[in-house]
Amino acid sequence: MNANYPEIKLSHKLVSTLTKLERLNGMIIGNRGKSETPDPELELISKTLQSNALSTICLDSTSPTQLTHPILSYFSKQGEPIFSATNSSTANSTAPISKENLEIISQTKNALTSNFELSEAGILNLVSKLICEQTENKEDLLRKSSAVFVAHDGKRVFTTVSPFLVPRRFKELIDWASEELLNEESAKALIIGTFHLLMLQLHPFKTANHRAVCIITYHLLKDAGYTFIERSPFFERFIFNSESYQNSLKYGERSSFSDWSTAPLWLEFFLKTLLECGEEAAKGDKLLLDHAILSNTQKQIIETIKKHGALSREKVVLETGINISTVKYNLSLLAERGHLKREGGGRSTFYRAS
After folding, report:
1. What pLDDT sits at residue 66?
2. Which residues of 335-353 are buried (b: 16+ CB within 10 A; e: fewer)?
3. What is the pTM of this model?
4. SS3 97
5. 138: which residues sit within 8 A by CB, 6+ positions away?
6. Distance separating alpha carbons of residues 149 and 199, to the nearest angstrom
7. Domains assigned to the chain
8. How far apart are CA 57 and CA 41, in angstroms?
9. For 78-136, how does the pLDDT look when each residue is reduced to its tens digit (9 = 90+)?
10. I need a surface site. Which of 24, 82, 86, 116 has the fewest CB within 10 A?
């Protein structure tokens, strides 16, 4: 390993979060087994893919303006659909999505689902497809001018590495990460988090650096066994917590290639975000498991409420034809188990799908 690359001093907080993450990931893998993927999970994976794709585009300041700032308003912490990428417009008729921008979304989704190899050639091939620039010499994709890392909201995060150092640092960073990820004793989440930070500091490509780095990070996490990021949006958490994300990157980068003393500030944020992502996926897995053993009546009630968005008890009876006593019992049970959310009170009580 290159002596300039980090050997992070693990704080108590880092060790604690890493332990929780590994325990949770082991539980998720163990609970899922090898059964076939049910249809509701396929739908969840599709929605999560769209969220991750849109988030990586939003985070990148070199994306078209329409896909960085206005699009943020379409994200929902409740995980509601943003818009259909097969449509030419969003729910907001004043913000149409152009054909060119739909192409960017499609290219990003393809990059997230394509095969990936952690090597210079593998990464440059991914970037070539991502920005639709075919060149015989893939090194033409590397940055050859000075650059500043600017966040999606226009805030300056830090100055990037000199362009003269890009080819050498690019190779060194990939070699270091490859070696560390093959080491069974390495904490892979820490290696991937460090890689994310140093790739942003390097900003090796001519354009789309933030988007490309996020996509590479996504592949590395999946390959390292954190497959729950397919079912729980990871990168939208960087947007919802953009100030913390930017600050942790800024402070984490300050001591890179010196004593690395500030790197844990970034890694704590990265691990905490990944842990939250895993916790959400675990809850979703439990709901899917519970759904598999629901009665036909319960499934009918849930699907009816999903179709309408939110319904009162009386409306559920009207829409399903199920008697009031059965509806009342099952609404209470489904809310208690987390399949439904109860809103309001008394005569104004409504139920919404979780």
Report:
1. 58
2. beeebbeeeeeeeeebbbb
3. 0.76
4. coil
5. 121, 124, 125, 128
6. 11
7. 12-290 (1.10.3290.10), 295-353 (1.10.10.10)
8. 24
9. 344 343 333 333 334 344 567 777 888 889 999 999 999 999 999 999 999 888 877 77
10. 86
